[in-house]
Amino acid sequence: MTERTSQLPGYTQLTEALEAEGIMISAAEAHGVLCGLLCASVESDADAQIIELLSPYGLEPEEEAELVRVLGALYRYSRCCFDDSGVEFGLLLPDADEPVAGRIEGIADWCRGFLYGLTEGGVTDLSRLPGDAAEVAHDLLNISDAVPDEDEADVEAQEKALTEIEEYIRVGVQLVFEELYAKSRSAAHTKH
Predict the structure, then answer these.
(1) 58-to-50, 52, 186, 192 alpha-carbon distances in Å
(2) Helix or strand or coil: residue 145?
(3) CB atoms within 10 A of CB 4
(4) What is Dmax (Cα atoms) for the chain?
(5) pLDDT tens for residues 40-94?
(6) Residues 166, 91 contacting (CB under 8 angstroms)
(7) Closest to 83 measured CA to CA, from 177, 1, 148
(8) Is the overall model pTM greater than 0.85, yes or no?
(9) Per-residue pLDDT tens for 142-155?
(10) What is the CATH T-level fold of the domain 3-191, as seen in this structure?
(11) Do 129 and 179 touch, CB atoms closer than 8 A?
(12) Cα separation of 25 and 154, whole Å?
C-alpha cells in the first residue's frame, strides 16, 4: 500500500462513518458522487463542494469536519488517479470476497452516485456531454438500475460480468473526465 492510499478509508469503514452520521449511502455511492463532481467541475474547491453536499444533514461541526477530511482525501486521491497516467483509477466497491448480490448493488450505487455528482457539479443534460462521454453516461444510467440475478447457480458468469462491467465503468469514467477536462481547458483558453 502506497503512502497515498494508506490514508484512505476502506469500503466498510467509510460506509459505517457515513451511516453513523445519518447519511444512508454506501461508500460506493459516496465515491461515485465525488468522482462525478470531480469530472463536472475539475477546478472547483473539493472541500467546499463536500460541505455543500453535507449541509442538509445538519451535522455538528466536528462531525462535518471529519467527514470533509475523509471525503476530501478520497476526492483528491481520485483526482490524482485521473491526472496521473501511471496510477490506475479504481472504484471504491465492496470487496471481491463479498457476495455477488452485494457487489452488484455496490456497482449500481457507484453509478447512481456518479451521475448525481455530475448533475450537482453542473452537468444539466447528460445527453449533451462531449464526445463519447454521453454514451458512457447513458450506459452508467442503465447500470445504476442493475439488480442481482436470483439464479445462484450462475455465480461464475456473474463474477465474470462484474469484472467486465467494473472495467468498463473505470475506463468510461476516465474518458468522461478527459472529455470534460479538455472542454473546461478549452473554455478557459477561449476566455483569455
Answers:
(1) 13, 11, 38, 40
(2) coil
(3) 14
(4) 60
(5) 987 788 899 999 999 999 999 999 999 999 999 999 999 988 887 667 888 999 9
(6) yes
(7) 177
(8) yes
(9) 999 988 766 666 77
(10) Four Helix Bundle (Hemerythrin (Met), subunit A) (1.20.120)
(11) yes
(12) 28
